[in-house]
Structures are given as C-alpha cells and as structure tokens.
Amino acid sequence: MNQDELKAAVADAAIEEIKSQLEKDTILGIGTGSTANLFIDRLGPLRHHFKGAVASSKASAERLEKLGIEVFELNSVGTVPFYIDGADEVNTHLHMIKGGGAALTREKIVAACAERFICIADGSKYVPQLGHFPLPVEVIPMARSYVARELVALGAEPVYRQGVVTDNGNQIIDCYEFMIADPVAMEARINAIVGVVTNGLFAARGADVLLLGKEDGVERIALK
Ligand code: 5RP
Predict the structure, then answer these.
(1) Which of 4, 18, 107, 222 has the highest CB neighbour number within 10 Å of its CB?
(2) What pLDDT is recorded for position 194?
(3) Using a 6 Å cutoff on CB, does residue 33 contact ligand 1?
C-alpha cells in the first residue's frame, strides 16, 4: 500500500471508531491536512447522524461545508467529544509534532476542548523520538527575528516559512536539526518565548488514541 492508501485506511478506521457514538446533537472537532481531508470526505454521507463540526482551519471548514456539514464557532460549542486529526510525527506516548499545514494553533485550541483526541496517521509518522520533522512555531510577525534568535539558543536551526500566513495572520518558523528529548518540557519552554503564539509540539495534550496505518492493517494504540 502506498502512503495515500494508508491514509485512506486510517480515515476509514476513524469513522468506525466514532460512528456508533454519533448522536443528533454531536459536534465533532475536525483537523487539517490530507489525512483529515480523507476523514472529512467520509463524514459527508453520515451528515444526518450528527449536528456538525468545529474546524481547525478555514480550509477544513470549507471542505466540511461543501459536504453539507454545518460548521460551528468553537466559542458557541464549548467541548467536543472527539477531535480527529493527522500528525507529522507521533511517538509511543502519543505526543506529536503538528503544523506541517500551518494550522497548529487552531488545532491545539480545538484539541484542548476535546474529550478524546483521535490521531490518524500512516506508519511513516510513528517515530521513537520527535524531531526529524522540523518543528513549526507560529509567531507574531514583528517578533519573528527575536523568536528565531531564542530558538537558536535552544539548539534549533530556525527557518522562516516564506510566503505562508496562518489563518490567524501570523508567520511560521520551522525548527530544523532539533531532536526533542522531553516534548512536554520543550513545548512549555518554546511557548514561554515572547512573540510565540504556539509551537507544534502536542505533548501536554497529546492524543488519546492513535490509528496507525500499516501494511498489515490499522493498528489501534490507546493510552486510556
Ligand atoms: C496541519 C497538521 C497536519 O495534521 C499534519 O501536517 C499532517 O498532515 P497530513 O495528514 O497531510 O500528512 O498538523 O497543520
């Protein structure tokens, strides 16, 4: 199976994971990226079985609405029972690096409001240590150079993601050559730099369930 087929398999598995728990008033939290898109596409036919969704990006909101799924503002919803999203890397503790698609801040906000985070990823994303994938950091534009210098002091090689403006009007710095020994501590450390909106480590609030697409099928890894 190629990577796209593995992504499709985990999107199918995520539908199976939540289908029986959908109710007329259920509002789902929906992530961003190619794996999340495959999940969104599979939600379309189920749209009459739940109320709607909160999206972690404008792109996902548009895709949901095109399928006839109502998109709600998070402020009017409170908590969501599930947040379903992909990852750029995920480790055995279900800590993740996310933000390859520059949606990390909204993803982290919706994840914070979720009772269960279901991560859907092809097997290439499962790693013993986070950091081969460059860690994205969303920054307030005027703070970009300052934050980059602070990231160098932490041992990263920061690179400005040219031409990318986030849904929040901010910029992205990617941290290369930055293997992360303690994701919980590093998430907090980077978030404490003035001018950082958030970073792509999802460790303080990692996933609860990982649906991992492998050659021999989808493996379900659950922490609780
Ligand atoms: C977007 C994300 C995505 O979840 C992550 O980049 C994985 O994307 P894909 O499913 O396309 O591999 O964090 O900001």
Answers:
(1) 107
(2) 98
(3) yes
